[in-house]
Every structure is written in C-alpha cells, then in structure tokens.
Amino acid sequence: MQPHNDTLLEIHDLSVSFRMYHHGLEQTKLQVISDLQLTVAPGEIVAVAGSSGSGKSLLASAILGILPHNAAVSGHLHYKGQELTAERQRQLRGTEIALVPQSVSYLDPLMKTGPQTDGHRRPKPVEKRSALFRRLGLPEQTAKLYPFQLSGGMARRVLVSTALLTDARLIIADEPTPGMSLDQALEALRLFREMAKAGKSVLLITHDIDLAFEFADTVAVFYAGTTVETAPASDFRIGPAALRHPYSKALWQSLPQNAFHPVEGFQPYAGDLPKGCLFAPRCPCKTTQCTTQVPPMREVRGGKVRCYHGT
C-alpha cells in the first residue's frame, strides 16, 4: 500500500487481535480492531467518535507501539510516507508523536508536575509552561505540586500541557477533556486548534463529540473496532441529512440536544461479532447482503462510508 504524499498519518486495513487463554492452557485469538481506515493531514484535527469499546484508545496505542505483548497487529501504518515499524515508533514516540493519555495515572506520583511537563527539554520552557497553565486555569503553584495534590480535572489539564509543550508534529489526545469545566474544555480545544493552524496535526479521541464537531476538520466514526464513516465535521453540524452511515445518524440523534433518541440493541462484543456488516443487527436498512458480506469503504459525497446503502 503506497501512502499519499499529502498525509501525515495514513492507516489502511489495520487489525489488532489479542492472544488470550480460554480454557486452562487453551489459547484463543480475540479480534478487537478489523480493517480500520484513517488519514490525518498536516494542520488537520481529526476527531474519532464512537461508543466505549469501539477501538478508539487501542488505535492510539497501535500508532505509538505501546500495545501489550500479547497483541498482534497487521495492516499498514504510515507516518510522513514511511512505514511505522516498531523501531520507528520508538524513535518518534514523545518527540514527533506525543500522547495525551486518557488515564491520569500516567503522571509520575513521585515527581512534581512542573518537571513532568518540561520533560527532557533544554532549556526548560518555564515561561511557556506558565502561560499555558494560566490559559488552562491552573494556579501558579501547580508546577510545585505532586499529582496526588491535584484534582482529576487539574491532572488532565497538566497532561494536556505536557503534550502541547513538545515539538511534536502529531498530538494524539485520548479523551483529554473529562473532568474539566466547559470553559476549560473549550480552552483546551482552542489550543489544539491553534496548533493545527501552525501546521501540526491532532488526532482527538473523544466522547464529547458535540464539542469535537465545533473544532475538528474531519470526524471518523468507529463501531465495533472498525471505521464506518469519515466525513467533514460540517456534515455533523448539519445533522443526519448530511451523514452517510445509519450508525453516524443514530449517534447524532442520541445526543442530549438532539432528543437523546437511542438506537435499539447494543454494540457487539469483540469475541462474538456478527457476519457481514457489524451494525446490521441494529440497522433499519439492513438487507440479506448486509448480513452475509462485509461492506467495503467507499467514497460518497466527499466522505467515506462502510455501508451498501449509504448515500
């Protein structure tokens, strides 16, 4: 698979499985991501939306090469046109590619937050860090505190600062806003937007999709470990009429401001995936073809959709 020259990160046919013990010493393979597709261009914010268990955080770990030892990865991961091998992932991790992790436990409990945000940079960007802390509503003394002295929201803002103070070209932000007030979350997203305007790229993994719609350029919708739609964020601001996949429309309609209308059924477990389209058991548009054949990703109205009936 040859990558495009105008993309920073390009992912094709990514699959991730885990080797697990089933009965006693009997091993089995659990497929959690299948044929996932995603591209991120320079200066672009791509928001990844989907319910819990859809593979969003696993994607971040696969890009960085920090999956557990029992994981098996196949497919194509390209960064700046070159394959992301394990060795290249080690070289780029924390330098060219930075992570805002989902868990605040990533902060070292034995180190004050100031040195953790500064990392190994020389000279230490103290003034830049102080300005960033102020923008995120962190008190001046935050740099002198240990992680256990921070509230959950403060710890998340420190993690955001850690990534923003790097010279990384790609920021992977995994659920960066939970625990923040609305104003703090908006300020964090404005900072990501400023980074994008400066030519950097952001992969924003989030449950706060209504906020993501306002700041992202592109939205990728995940379901049961695969990409079902990628579309301009403006389509999500318009609503179901502009969207292509039935699940994307259902996701939009389930938001509180859109009548909080849930779709019947539930996302399938990774160990018990249905044949054909993974959304077919819940889809009002399904046909026999949907329940027997896996639909390919295809281009529709300036976006991409994995659906035989997406228009």
What features would you describe in this structure?
The chain contains 10 helices and 12 strands. With 311 residues, it is an alpha/beta fold. β9 (218-223) and β10 (226-232) form a beta hairpin. An 8-stranded mixed β-sheet has the order 6-7-8-3-9-10-12-11, sandwiched between helices. The model has no long low-confidence stretch (mean pLDDT 91). It has helices spanning 56-64, 86-92, 113-118, 126-135, 152-164, 182-197, 209-215, 233-238, 246-253, 288-292, and strands spanning 9-21, 27-40, 45-49, 71-79, 82-83, 97-100, 170-174, 201-205, 218-223, 226-232, 298-300, 303-305.
Q: How are the SSEs ordered, and which strands pair?
A:
Layout: E1 9-21, E2 27-40, E3 45-49, H1 56-64, E4 71-79, E5 82-83, H2 86-92, E6 97-100, H3 113-118, H4 126-135, H5 152-164, E7 170-174, H6 182-197, E8 201-205, H7 209-215, E9 218-223, E10 226-232, H8 233-238, H9 246-253, H10 288-292, E11 298-300, E12 303-305
Strand content: 15-25%
- Encode the helix/strand succession as letters: EEEHEEHEHHHEHEHEEHHHEE
Widest sheet: strand ordering: 6-7-8-3-9-10-12-11
- How many beta strands in the DSSP annotation? 12
